[in-house]
Amino acid sequence: MSEISLAPDAADALPGLSQPSGLLRWIASVDHKQIGIMYIVGALVFFVIGGLEAMLIRAQLAQPNAKLISPEFYNQLFTMHGVTMVFLVGMPILIGFGNYLVPLQIGAHDMAFPRLNALGLWLFIFGGLLMYFSFFIGQAPDQGWFSYAPLAEQPYTSHRGPDYWSLGLFVTGIGSVSGAINVIVTVWTMRAPGLTMRRLPLFTWMTFINGFLIIFALQILNAGLVMLEVDRLFGGSWFTPPGSPVLWQHVFWSFGHPEVYILILPAFGMISEIIPVFSRKPIFGYEFVAGSTIVIGFLSFTVWAHHMFAVDLGIGWHAFQSAATMLISIPTGIKIFSWIATMWGGKLRFTTAMLFAASFLVIFTIGGITGVTFALVPTDWQTTDTYYVVAHFHYVLVGGTFFAVYAGVYYWYPKVVGRMLSERLGKWHFWLNFAGLNLTFFVQHFLGLMGMPRRVYTYPDLPGWGTLNLISTLGGLISALAVLVFVVNLVWSARRGQPAGDNPWQAWTLEWATTSPPPPHNFEELPPVRSRRPLWDLAHPEDPDWKREH
Amino acid sequence: MLDPNSPQAQSIANLFNGSMLLGTAIFMLVTGLVLYVLWRYRSRGDTAEPRQYPGNRRLEIAWTIAPALIVAGLFGWQLDVMRDTAPPADRPPDIIVTGYSWWWRVEYPKAGFVTANEIHIPVGRQVLFQLQAADVIHNFWVPDLGPKRDMIPGHPNNTVWLAADRPGVYLGACSEYCGLQHAWMRLRVVAQPQAEYDAWIQQQQTAATPADAEAARGAEVFQNLTCVNCHAITGISNAQAGPDLSHVGGRATLGAGIIENTPANLSRWIANPHDIKSGVQMPGYQLSEADLRALVAYLGSLK
User: Fold this and answer.
1) Class for domain A35-547, per CATH?
2) Which domain holds residue B127?
């Protein structure tokens, strides 16, 4: 078959190819960069909503026996806070970064399936809107983000909340799966000449592995959602006797634990890009950092029942799931030590991105250590479903995922917008967030150990409980202030920030080889790729990486 | 959990403290390294790039193996702790607790009586609890006395061992989210010396009688209203839908911990329980002041 070439003005002559303008330019877009930006902006809007829900929760809990918020509304708040932060903030913001960056990092002009890409975005947005619509009819989900049967079943929750929850998540879930397929195919088939799988930038690598986790985990959730709706709408009994409520827990957590890694692997990828650039050294032990991601991926599907130790599944299950959970600390430890070793012997530049990345190491380690408490069956029996677990996973998801995302925003914003974020506001943002996070969540470890269960709209006035909760609420206010500074920075710098240039950080991966922001087709020309750091090779012909690797 | 008061709670606390000690050491190592590296290798303004090197295989293998040894050690330790807390299968339970939304039915099968929301146990003896659920999943947890366990509808055979080394009142709570009033599904365990405990058992086995004429009139009010359709009182009613009230006057709280059990609070509860704990099954009763006073006197006298 011969090649068909279009005359230079053919694109203008065909109406389907003409460039729409204004809002339609975004809505009708199939460009991975625009889609990526819309994912991220959508996630940030939901982040503000989920954050306001958290503020209301903390306001109610600031004092014992408070009556600021009704129990009905409180239960809706904590349910939607969790659902929002996991499904409408964490996943889409990471998918959005992947969308924007993966084609650029592999030297491609777009994703493999641009229209499927747009479908995924709009499924995320409409799924989110569908769930939030429940507030307008006064029947928001209030059964918890994990929607345990039989509480979420018809006799115990007769309003439509769980149905909005199931259908909303089903819609976003299909979007996530389509996005994951797209990433996998894109990375597999569209890499620039010379960019072998062993030379992939680590963010792209981890997003690629994450694609497999999403495909397998989200399908389990989607199946579970349908089963729950069969129970609720058609009188089935998957999860009520003669079926079993424990079956729901198996279904939910065999999605739910891989989900935790879905929320952290791309964040690990961001850290693996940012620390080397601001240490001026290649990542230490690329193969171990990349390989440990695969190990985490496999292990993440073998540990779900550590969410169910209090069910009492018997010693065999407990021992197996506990051992598998503890094994995950090994590949995670490899990453932490590799990042530290990357900094070792470097020349560190303390940009805001680097501050978030370096503090990620410390805060994520705290979350990892308290995680051991849930891997050990007997200590899990004491601490599960208490404020200790709330503290633990906020260290992982805020101090881990979110600090990495913040680092990523400060690092890649110049590429996306063409202007630098204000470093001055950035430092304010960092220090306020660092203080706020620790103040909010560190004390919650003690509340949990003192016996405070989670998901309670109030608590009795027992010694110390009021004080610790008040400290936690004050920390929340500081975090809210930090987010405000962050948003101001995003908006202000878009118009007034310093022009960025193509490669403001002297970074080494392909996204920095094009203009900021990149043109519609991403690259005018690609540099030769002979190693993991093509732009280093370009800048240092006397000391190229390809002489070092292998 | 910070104040373990039984051998099993102590055993778990030891494991927790041990793992935290280890964790703190790892945290200090990581934080120390990060701070050292940040200080030692901070850029001093020159633009020359540092020496480039991609890794060190021996070091990478070392920090793969070291954590593996640590988790293997912890894994072995926890097996011992699991043995310390594991209930043997071949013994009937001492107490059967059933979780309802949002209160606890407490049955003493050997002594043959039922009570609610407050559990008495003898000091220094291991007590075997059988845990069930009547509606949704609940979780039975008294942090100072031992591990928590889920109560799952359709799975009536969950058990847990608890004990108390010292006499006292130990607070517990439902710790599986169970709907609207999950926050107020609280629990009290009263650990008593053997003689005191035996006396309590005997008291619970005997029907309480109205203390005076007003209380006796209150008993009539109780029987004439729909109270008897849901609440049991020994000698008057056997209904099981709500908490057993045979000795409600002896309990410290009402509504599973939401208010103190005083005559004033009891009248408020009877007149409008939803004002205090919205969503409970019990309807409010519009009684004449005299009837309400009599009913409160009667229930308060059931010690």
Assistant:
1) mainly alpha
2) 95-205
